[in-house]
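Quick start: what a row looks like.
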Amino acid sequence: MYRQGDVLIVPVPEESLPAGTAALPRQPRDSRGRLVLALGEVTGHAHAVVGPGLLVREPGPFGASYLHLPDGGRVVHEEHAAIPLPKGWYRVVRQREYTPGAVRVVAD
């Protein structure tokens, strides 16, 4: 299990992925060719993966995200040390916070 700021990355054995995961909408790479796991609305910084792979995401603000790295990769961020990830599938979880009357994704 890996954590970088408000992003948690959990290894998932391929046989344990929910049915239909590979058919979820693929997230495009950003202008720098990275897979963006979370973009800071305030700073513009991003938790992102460099290297080959794909990121799929269930629709909706709290939809699950899954990352596939066939050769491994690195999670990078402008303010955090890079984290190497071995090849495999991962579930990407954004930190949430409670505010009176709502649950929301933490703003970075």
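That is the whole record. The two ends are 21 Å apart (CA to CA). The chain has a mean pLDDT of 88.
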